[in-house]
Structures are given as C-alpha cells and as structure tokens.
Amino acid sequence: MNFTDEILDFLIKKNIKTVFSYPGEQILPLYNGLNESPIKNIMVRSEQGASHMADGYSRITNHVGVCLATAGPGATNLMTGIATAYKDSSSVIAITGRCKKEYINKNYFQEINMDFLNLQNGYFVDAPDIKYFEKAFNESINTKKPIHLNIPYGVLLDSNDDNNRNNNENNYKDEKNNKKDNTSILNNIDYNTTGKPLLLIGQGIYGNLSYNDILKINDILKNSHIPIATTYPARGVIDENNPICLGLVGGRGTEKANQYILNCDTVYCLGASLSYNTLPPLIRDKIIPKIKDIPININNLEDIELLINTLNYKYNNVYINNIGNNINPNNKLCGDYSLKINEILNNLPDDTIITTDAGNHTVFVSLLKTCGAPKNIISSHSMGTMGFGLPASIGVKFGCLDNNIDREVVSINGDGGFQMNIQELATVSENNLKILIIIMKNNRLNIFGDIKNPDFNKIADGYNIDNIYISDIDEIENNIKYYLNNNKPYLMVVECENESLPKKSFN
Ligand SMILES: Cc1ncc(C[n+]2csc(CCOP(=O)(O)OP(=O)(O)O)c2C)c(N)n1
Ligand SMILES: [Mg+2]
C-alpha cells in the first residue's frame, strides 16, 4: 500500500466525511486519491476559503474539520483561516504538500518554509508513517486548535512498509492521558459559599461532546441555582431567555451580566479562555482575582451534571432568585441598518445558525439576536477576520449535511468583507447548498471609509444563484419565506444606510 492510500483509510476511519481542498502539483496524489474515495472532496476557489470552511465545519460538529492545499501559495492562502481557527480554538487539520525531500531549502519551484502554519503545532511528515496523522488528530481534538501536516511529494508515493517508517518515537509519541477524575477536581476547589457566585461558561464546555449532547446541555444548566453568564462562542448553551442566564459578558455583553460579574464574589469559570473580548482591560483586573477555574474534563453530559449538582449543593442556602429576565440592551438601536438586521432575524427560525463576517453587522447581529440554541451565531471572535462569513457558512452547511443537523444556515455579511471571499459563491452554487446569503450594502467599511461595490446581483447571476435586491424593509419577510420554502441557495442584497455602533459597555 502506498502512503496516500493509508492516509485515505485513516481519514475514513476517523469518520472524516468532507475535506475542503484545492489541487496543486505537490499535493496531487492525495487530492486525486480523495476524489476516488468515499470522502467528499469539495474543491474551493481559494485556499483561504478551504481553511475557513474546515473551521466552520469543526465549530458546528465539534469534530475536526480538514483542509488541504499545495505547497507555497496554497499554504500561504490557507494561513488566514488557520489563524482564525487558532484564535477561536477550533479543531482543524491543515494538510499541505511539499516538493520532494531532496529539493527542500534549495529554492525549488514553490518551495518555502511552511512552518508559519504551525501556530499551535505542525509535523513535517518525513516518512510514510500514519502515526503523524494519529498524533495530529489527537492533538487537534484535545487542544481544539489547528494542527498542520506538511508532506513531501515523494512521501505520498512511498510504500508504507516497516522499513520506511520513522523509528524516532519521540517525533510522534502520544501524550499520556494523565487527566484527573472530575470528582477529585471538584473536591479540591475552595468554595467561597458566603458570597454571591457566578458561573461563567465558555466554549470549553463542549469538550468532547457530540453535537446531539451539546443540545442537551441546556437541560442540565437550567437546574443551576447559580446565575450563569457566557462568553460569546458559548452563547445559547443555555437559553438566553431563561432568567438564570444573564447573557454575554464583555464589551458587547449585557448590562446584567457585566454588572453581576463586577459585583459578585466568586466567578466559577468553566471552559473560558478569558480573552480580552470577555474581560476587557477596564474590568479585567477587578475580575481576575475572583476567578476560580474549574478544570474538569468534559467527555459526557454527566460531567456537567456533576458540576451543577456540586455547586447547587455548596450554595444550598443562598439560592438566588429574582434575577429577572435578561435580553440584550438593544433598545438604543433604531437606525436603518440595525432595523433591517432585526427584521431579518425576526423572520428566521430561532435555531438558525448565523455566520457573520467582521464589521458593524457583526455587532448588530450580536446585540439583536437572543440565542436559544448552541452555535446560534458563528463568528470570528478573536481574529475579526473579514471574509470569514461566506466560507464559514459553507463549512457549517456541510457539517449539518454530514451529521443530519436540521437547522437553517444563514450568512450575514457586510459589502466589504463579502468581497474578500466572494469566489466561494462558486462552491455554494456547484454543490447547490441551501444557504441564505445576505449582503448588507451600505457602501461603507464602517469607520474606515466608503467602498464602491460591484453589482452583486449580476455576480450572483454569473454564479447561477437566485438573488434579489432589497431596498425596503417590508420586502425582507417575503423573501426570507421564499428562501425557506425552497431548497437552493438564495442571495439577498439588502440596501441600508450607514449606522454607527452604540457605545461599548467597557472599553
Ligand atoms: C481581513 C481584514 N481586513 C481589515 C479588517 C479591518 N476592518 C474591520 S471591520 C472593517 C470594515 C467592514 O466593512 P463591511 O464588510 O462593509 O461591514 P459593515 O461594517 O458595513 O457591516 C474593516 C476594514 C479586518 N477586520 N479584517
Ligand atoms: Mg459595509
């Protein structure tokens, strides 16, 4: 068997159903092999699209997303998506090709050092040994980070018999599983049960849970006696309509969550990285001393149940009620841009998965959407990548199709960011993906200046995607209905006036 075939077998064994890729000389054996395998090999139109798609796929499925590109320009194009996945802790495997080993470092065609993709870690696959893949997959799943595999052309063609394997075990030794058990972790926490507690939940709560289990977390959290606030990527893990949920913490957080985190005595922190989005500089130093990290391992729902039961037991006498209902402080939003976003959100099913790009629309969606389901909004939180929204929605859609996730997928974009990966309309069209693609056309890059736009409808026509131009807010409802009742992509250009953002809670 040659190494390419062994890689394909490995991917199938790991339940990889879709790979996002672009061909090139140095990766061709694997690219061609994928086309002949049961795995869907989705050809993108730029490698940046592939890495964002793998990221979107991982975010919705909680499994790894895989992207593949050739050496040199293929690898550099992947980079923005890999950095985005890295900053938001998304499990992505990036496979790149390389010239034959004898040409490495010799100014060969497309030969550059590709270690820039190793933001978390990466492996140079110098021998046809599948342990590199095992190692990379384990690492990506355990760390929730992108891991890079760089394979020289010759190695792809090598036979994988024992003589060719790498004998240096240190290169790929599996990490020892020395995780402690959750009961002892919880017993070792110093509970400060005299004061006011808050449970702050980040996306680490998803642990190694399946998508279906992630949907059930709400049923456990709603029994908490302790108020819960979340980070952005964890929004919807508990229904934000539930009074026990104070909503999002941070610069764009709810007043209730932000007041509570400032005034409480202890913040029990589960699976939150405490980025500057969650704890902006102005409040950071006041909160950090009150944080008690709960480093439990989440492999099944009982792990979360144990935590909630423990906290309820410890805080039995200080049952907290009358927190009141809490929704985002959106009453100040009344401009044309935000009203149109609101109208869009109101006409979509509540559990729709919305991907956003980077710009004012990102903030309007965040402030106006009440998240009742996990992964209601998928966004580039910590990188703020323009061009993320469309390809991420494609990855999300494939994740839904592969896992029978029956939710609508809607991509809301600014007119600037949309043009950064506009070519992926081809991927939408070619695969007839039912995605509602919305471009908020304000001819503006928010505070940065104006932008001249092409005729987006003509572009959609060119890609053979059904589309409409909307200038009046009253046209939104019927067009969304039309989209929902059909089984194909639909592109809506929504003309809107520029609108400034409301002030942040903290700067
Ligand atoms: C790749 C990249 N380049 C530049 C920026 C800086 N930036 C953030 S938002 C923005 C303007 C976004 O405008 P648009 O896409 O039209 O969205 P809108 O604000 O109109 O909703 C820019 C230039 C960025 N976040 N990402
Ligand atoms: Mg704009």
UniProtKB/TrEMBL annotation:
Q: Name one GO molecular function term.
A: thiamine pyrophosphate binding
Segments of this protein annotated with the region Disordered: 160-179
Q: Which UniProt keywords apply?
A: Thiamine pyrophosphate
Thiamine pyrophosphate enzyme N-terminal TPP-binding domain segment(s) = 1-112
- Domain Thiamine pyrophosphate enzyme TPP-binding stretches: 357-494
The record's GO CC annotations read: acetolactate synthase complex
Q: Name one GO biological process term.
A: sulfur compound biosynthetic process
Which residues does the UniProt record annotate as the domain Thiamine pyrophosphate enzyme central? 196-298
Which InterPro entries does the entry link to?
A: DHS-like_NAD/FAD-binding_dom, THDP-binding, Thiamin_PyroP_enz_cen_dom, Thiamin_PyroP_enz_TPP-bd_dom, TPP_enz, TPP_enzyme_TPP-bd
- PANTHER family tied to this protein: ACETOLACTATE SYNTHASE CATALYTIC SUBUNIT, MITOCHONDRIAL (PTHR18968:SF13), THIAMINE PYROPHOSPHATE ENZYMES (PTHR18968)
The entry sums up its family as follows: Belongs to the TPP enzyme family.
Q: What is this protein called?
A: Thiamine pyrophosphate protein domain protein TPP-binding
Q: Which organism is it from?
A: Methanococcus aeolicus (strain ATCC BAA-1280 / DSM 17508 / OCM 812 / Nankai-3)
Q: What is the lineage of its organism?
A: Archaea, Methanobacteriati, Methanobacteriota, Methanomada group, Methanococci
